[in-house]
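Please go through the protein record below and see whether the fold suits the sequence. Record follows.
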Amino acid sequence: MTTTITWLGHNAWSIETAGKSILVDPFLNDSPTAPVKADGVRADFILLSHGHGDHVGDTVAIARRTGATVLANFEVGQWLAGKGVSSGKIIGMNPGGGIQQPFGHVKFTIAHHSSSMPDGSYGGVPGGFLLTLDGERVYFACDTALFLDMKLIGAGGLDLAVLPIGDLYTMGPDDSIDAVKLLNPKRVAPCHYNTWPPIAQDAGSWAQKVRSHTAAEPLVLEPGGKIAL
């Protein structure tokens, strides 16, 4: 069965695999680039990288509507439970930990960023996700700076890496090229850019640098664009 990954703008993604629908950081209703609204998406599972509002997004409303299981760091999970998401549908994680789910394996990786909840409360530590989906390995770096341990994340082979390139709040285009070299994925897609002017980037120029300086195939999407694994 083909796994399909759809960019929903910013760092929001929808994954269809093994008969399940997974959302990553579903920032939709308030996103200027999202092609769908929160009431128009399906979700059996939601993966949250950290507590910032442009990543937690519409998780509470979606989880309550769909009954989706939410995987996040422990503190984000506690906050969601306080907002009415069923505690039985929350899996609290920490960096380095992994868990098998009906759609595949999820590992919560380190990220260098910050994390606070939309109301200003403590949001635990940020992270990314290393997913194994029907034998394919996909890494969502989420909001992070460049870090040398990306080489370890890529050591087992990556079919796809998704990296932020917006700069200012995360790594920018130049550091993302170094990240591609460390990760050595077969394919790489950019995210967390062009949502607002402060993180505007030329993705076409970025793709040329990927081709020139790495062995990866760059995949530049418009919001709503899809990747098939």
Notes: The chain has six helices and 14 strands. The chain has a mean pLDDT of 98. The chain has one domain: 4-222.
